[in-house]
Design brief:
The protein is of the alpha/beta class. It contains four helices and seven strands, in the order βαβαβαββαββ. It has a five-stranded parallel beta sheet with strand order 2-1-3-4-5, with helices on both faces. It is elongated.
Length: 171
């Protein structure tokens, strides 16, 4: 969601996928807290950026299972999630071939949104957009077509016709 800052956690082996993901999300208006495309930032800088972020997106793959930096970043994100409660979201992305139950390998708590599970290198964008509260372009309402849905609770409603148009009045 535009306005939020995102931290993308991944290991070097997943860098091509991470860069593709980041490009897709930046085209949707998402902003990332770190401008570094590679993971050469120091541990202190990573911790600072994880704390500044509103959302923590982590790519989980066989390469990250025993990766100490990824585990440390997840631990920091879980701490932030507990401190900020609903104001901090953790979004795990499982690479193809991993089952949802594998997520317990990385996380100590259930402080994350439902994981996004990739199939054969394909990223399920619809689920990702839902987790990020984004609306895919083909689902956005067309402009100028009026109100899609509006629900109001009115007291003393009345209908009145003026110049051939029906007007609703209420207090």
């Amino acid at each position: 969601m535009p306005g939020f800052f995102h931290y993308l956690s991944y290991c070097e082996e997943d860098k091509p996928f991470a860069l593709k993901l980041r490009l897709i999300l930046e085209k949707k208006g998402l902003r990332f807290i770190s401008s570094e495309w590679d993971k050469t930032q120091s541990e202190k800088a990573a911790a600072r950026n994880i704390k500044k972020a509103d959302r923590f997106i982590v790519i989980l793959s066989p390469a990250t299972i025993n990766h100490p930096r990824i585990k440390q970043e997840i631990k920091l994100a879980e701490q932030q999630s507990q401190l900020k409660e609903k104001d901090y979201q953790i979004i795990p992305i499982l690479s193809a071939g991993l089952k949802e139950s594998a997520i317990n390998t990385w996380f100590d708590s259930k402080s994350f949104l439902p994981p996004i599970i990739c199939q054969e290198g394909k990223l399920p964008l619809k689920q990702l957009y839902q987790n990020l509260n984004l609306i895919p372009e083909n689902l956005k309402p067309e402009t100028g077509n009026g109100i899609n849905c509006l629900q109001l609770e009115l007291s003393d409603p009345s209908l009145e016709e003026q110049e051939g148009k029906l007007l609703i009045k209420a207090t």
